[in-house]
Design a protein that fits this description.
This protein is of the alpha+beta class. It has 3 helices and 2 strands, in the order ααββα. The protein has a domain of 52 residues. The chain has a two-stranded antiparallel ribbon with strand order 1-2. Helix 1 runs antiparallel to helix 3.
Length: 82
């Protein structure tokens, strides 16, 4: 149980690192344009399944920039430091 909890904490640190890094990259993109460059990773266009009785749509996109990767690395370092 403790091992699973530590794994969940790692995912939280990674997610927060990605989000905060992405926000910082967008904010600093006006000053340093290379930080605002991003790559879209995901399912585009969305997957759509129509079975006449019900419809199922699945889609996701991640916008990854340089500082979001740096934020994830900092999240891993902070997790190991914890």
């Amino acid at each position: 149980m403790a091992r699973q909890r530590r794994g969940n904490i790692l995912w939280i640190f990674l997610l927060v690192g990605f989000i905060l890094g992405g926000i910082c990259g967008e904010l600093l993109g006006g000053i340093f344009p290379i930080l605002a460059r991003s790559v879209l990773v995901g399912l585009n266009p969305n997957f759509h399944l129509d079975l006449h009785m019900f419809q199922f749509t699945l889609g996701f996109l991640f916008r990854v920039n340089l500082l979001s990767i740096v934020g994830a690395i900092i999240g891993i370092i902070l997790y190991r430091w914890l």
